[in-house]
User: Fold these one by one.
Assistant:
Number 1:
Amino acid sequence: MIHALDHVVIAVRDLDAGIDAYQRLLGGPPCWRAEAAGGGAETAVFQLANVAAELIAPTGNGPGAERLRAVLDAQGEGLASLAFAVDDVERAHRRLTRLGLHPEPVVAAESVDRVSGGRRRWRRTRAATAATHGVRVFLIERETSPPTPPPAAPGGGTGLDHVVIRTPDPERAAALYGARLGLDMRLDRSNPAWGARLMFFRCGDLIVELAHDLRAGVSDGPDRLWGLSWRTDDPAAAIIRLRAAGVDVSEARPGRKPGTQVFTVRDGTCGVPTLMLQPS
């Protein structure tokens, strides 16, 4: 059913400020800017090799804008939703229905870029947020290809490696992402030294990571979209570039996977805990 992660959505209060932040972080400009489908918000899209990062900010005073402002007031800026790619959204809708995820009706949508006038079309559905334990999950069938990623600056982002979801109930989360959504579990490991149980689910060429705090125990609270790990071919160049732009970053260090290098981006991410990682 799901063959990739199409895009992640990051809610921001000010779209221009968000664009500035992610252009610094990823090392390239957005390739698309448009009114959000349904109105009340504006979006900017940063396309990378394997995923897009879509910033969304409220505009005007309509119902859509007020709903988004209410989310920002309650949760602050940060990750808002995941959109998974499917080849047949009608078939995916039937599967979600059979598995008790209560999807919304399939709808068609279109986006028109304000600069080029280009058009992108897709069809989508969304699982009920209560059934996905608080994480907004869309399934999307593209009718037009994504734009070609623009060239990135030295040490820029080349793709997404991990999206991290924090869960108070790892077995419940594993049943959702593995059994119901059909992602391929590749790792399930508890490590007292980390204080966490980590589960990795392959989705295309990236990982959906579920993280559970062992010290907190199991509860029936909601899951929470949390952080992103971006790929870069040159961590040293990325650190130099980001520090020159005034971004607070750590030194590079070995990653948990042998042969990898990672560093932490401490600000300038619109509330999203962020790593940059050089794959092995």
Number 2:
Amino acid sequence: MSESDEKKIVLVIEDEPDMLRGLRDAMRFEGFSVLAARTGEEGLAMATEQQPHMVLLDLMLPDMNGYLVCEEIRRHDHVVPIIMLTARGQEADKIRGLEVGADDYVTKPFSIGELLARINAIFRRLERMSPRQPKVLTVGTAVVDLSKHTLTRDRRTEALGFYEVELLRLLHERAEQPVSRDEMLEKIWGLEASPTNRTVDNFIAKLRKKIEEDSKCPRHILTVYGCGYKLVP
């Protein structure tokens, strides 16, 4: 982050003192301004009053679980990126986190370097957005407002998370062309490819449920076997 950039505010909601201290020190070293909360209630108050640019949210908090905190943040802010920190490695727990509005998840113990890569990738994507880019995309019968992070289909409007919007933006830029999982991981998450990383697949499955008439037989977000996915608007 250059000195000329706006100092980004990251809210960390984490009750473990050592973890909180480590995250705070690492992110301050990277040039971020850090807000720290040790309970869900305190975190919700800070999210509302301070309006951070990103939230790191622990799943297990002393007063309420991270799913509830995430849902409450999303009632007031559809756009702020939320990364969930969890000791649970079960796929069902990760999927539930995405369903309540988390944009991503990192399973403890995790590499601080990997987490910082994800954070920096998000801010790079936000800074690269050009005013000339389209603000609205149409995919089948779904209308996606990229600036408001909403998707409307069959007269029903629902929120989209940061990574959902960025996946659609990238796929739309390359419409009708295959985009590899490796490229998506690198460009959107700032991560190196890993054969065990299901991140892209989980987000594609989530998007299909919102866009497709039948998510099990998709017509718009298609799998390209051995590569990744392509968008057929």
